[in-house]
Amino acid sequence: MAGKVFGRLALLAGAMALAGCEGGFALPGTGDKEATEAPVAQTSVRLVERDVEAPEVFQVTEQGLWDGRPSLGGVWVAYAEVKEPERVIIRNPGNGKFVIGALFRREREMPGPALQVSSDAAAALGLLAGAPARLNVTALRSEEVPVAPPAPDTPAPTPAAPAPAATARPVAEVTGTAAAAITAAEAKTAPPPAAAPATQPEPAQKPATRPAPTNARPYLQIGIFSVEANAERAAGMLRKQGVVPLIRTQESQGKPFWRVIVGPANRSADRDILLEKVRGLGFQDAYFVRN
User: Fold this and answer.
1) Percent of the chain, pLDDT > 70?
2) Which residues contact 149 (CB under 8 A, 6 or more apart)?
3) pLDDT tens digit string along 12-36?
4) pLDDT (tens digit per residue) in 163-208
5) Is residue 95 part of a domain?
6) Given phi > 0 = left and psi -120 to 50 = alpha, else beta, which region is 284?
7) CB distance 120 to 85 below 8 Å
8) Extended beta strands in the chain, E state
9) 44 versus 101: which is more confidently predicted?
10) Among 23, 27, 19, 113, which Cα is nearest to 66's?
11) Are 142 and 51 in contact (CB under 8 A)?
12) Do 75 and 118 contact (CB within 8 A), yes or no?
């Protein structure tokens, strides 16, 4: 009996000596996990839209004329040989001015310059009423280009070397479990750990897909304006008649312009009603666009 007690005391003394020789005690919940985790630099690439000229779609250089009368619809020109409305860049080579606007089909052939110019376009291009000027009109197309995020100003700090894992437990923990440790040491064989039940991996869920729009051009463009106040005035006219417009600010070659659009309207019936109402308010040159 005395031998068993002496043996147990020897085991307890050895465990406490081992804990003291490890150079300190580890606090609960600490270790090398926090030391080895380093911030991971995340990089992302975003897409931005920009305008590119598309002369293969439409391009003419002709005489243009503003007749001196105010016109609705913002910045636009009309030309006889146009199949569908387009967004274009209009240049006046005589003074170097240019503006983004819309291109429409001229309703009827009239004597004089081939290009009919709106009052807003004339103001942006520096045209005088009744004075023809040579203009260049080129179609525009939008394309998406990737833009990488800017590089950080300072390099990321080098993560510290991981500290060695502490194996000793606190004194209180060793003392509290001494009896269990002695009993396990005297046991001839330790029971094997129970095997964790095999779990079947859950099937991966398919990402939800958005239904494709029923029409490729759901927005009705009221006009393109080189002056923000004119865009706001056109939008105000629509709001008074119960039509909710959107004003989108864009930029091309360093110059801003404002587009007034309404929508989206995907169903054919909604498109017909919207177009009829907008044209009834005087915006005869409104047309549907993609965005």
Assistant:
1) 59
2) 43, 44, 45, 46
3) 555 454 444 444 444 444 444 444 4
4) 554 444 444 444 444 445 444 544 444 455 555 555 555 555 555 5
5) yes
6) alpha
7) no
8) 46-53, 59-65, 76-79, 86-92, 97-105, 115-117, 133-147, 219-225, 245-252, 255-262, 287-289
9) 101
10) 113
11) yes
12) yes
117 closest CA partner among 51, 69, 60:
69
Q: Is residue 108 part of a domain?
A: yes
* Contact yes or no for 113/64 (Cβ under 8 A): yes
CB 214 within 8 A of CB 225: no
Taking alpha carbons only, the member of 260, 239, 258 closest to residue 249 is: 258
The range of the structural domain enclosing residue 86 comes to 47-143
CB atoms within 10 A of CB 28: 9
Query: Among candidates 64, 65, 99, 103, which has minimal Cα distance to 82?
Result: 103
Cβ atoms 118, 77 nearer than 8 A: yes
How many structural domains compose the chain? 2
- CA-to-CA distance for 245 and 154, rounded, in angstroms? 45
Strand order through the sheet with 219-225: 245-252, 255-262, 219-225, 287-289
Q: Write down the residue that tokens 């177009």 correspond to.
A: 275
How many CB atoms within 10 Å of residue 17? 9
Q: Helices in the chain by DSSP H: which ranges? A: 2-20, 33-36, 119-125, 171-176, 178-186, 228-240, 268-280
Half-sphere exposure of 119 (CA within 13 A, CB side): 7
- Pairwise CA distance, residues 242 & 220, whole Å: 15
Last residue of a domain, one of 112, 143, 174: 143
Within a domain: residue 128? yes
